[in-house]
Amino acid sequence: MGSDYYEILEINRNASDADIKKAYRRLALKFHPARNREPGTYEKFRQLGEAFDVLSDLRKKATYDKFGEDGLKAGIPNEFAKGGAWSSKYDYHDNPEKTFKEFFGSNNPFQVMNDNGCTSSIRDKMLTVTVKPGWKEGTRITFPEEGDQGPNNIAADMVFIVRQKPHSLFKRALVGFVVEVETLDGRIINIPVNEIVHPSYKKVVPGEGMPLLHNQSQRGDLILTFNIHFPEKLSKESKHLIKQALRY
């Protein structure tokens, strides 16, 4: 059984040309022998070069998708040739550095040319963010002097901003949340609710109601009434999570 070029590049078979290039760039930099000295790195680097060489070429990719690596390298019947001619066999040049250089357009993409003509090296560093209970949307985590650094300049700070992924069941309510409301004139505003929300709870939003009769330039208040729908039943896992959150 032939090589799976899609698996080598860690992409799906329906990956776009941009996805293929992005995957090769990430993995080629990771497994380049100049950066990675682990055993088997060069062979992985060579496989990446061959996989990209095939999947980045429309004709090679079409042949591979239909007949696999064996058909690509052994030659297949050419539907467009006369007399039942066979297509030429594919043979990778076994020079992954050549593929690497053609892709990046440079012998060393690990360096960046500065305005003064000097080069500076790019180095990887792993930063760990420990997400703490109670962090909200917009929480900022700063790593001092861990960002980009230019010549004769102090490195910039690296800042991570928390983005909250909605949960399929649980939402913030008891300890505050933000509700998105469409106003009477079609605007979308975010209303922070910091009070404890209970059935029939009302939130007054000043100046977002109907225009006043005797002063059209001013508006009355918008009153939001909350109608809370409680679940009819909870799974054991949901109950366990609630007890954990409330330390019950």
UniProtKB/TrEMBL annotation:
Any Gene Ontology CC annotation: cytosol
Keyword set includes Lyase: no
Pfam families noted in UniProt: DnaJ, DnaJ_C
Keyword rRNA processing: no
InterPro entries to which the protein is assigned, alphabetical: DnaJ_C (IPR002939), DnaJ_domain (IPR001623), DnaJ_domain_CS (IPR018253), DnaJ_subfamily_B (IPR051339), HSP40/DnaJ_pept-bd (IPR008971), J_dom_sf (IPR036869)
Sample GO molecular function, one term: protein-folding chaperone binding
SMART domains linked to this entry: DnaJ
Single GO biological process annotation from the record: protein folding
Superkingdom classification of source: Eukaryota
Domain J: 4-68
Keywords assigned by UniProt, alphabetized: Chaperone
Protein name as annotated: J domain-containing protein
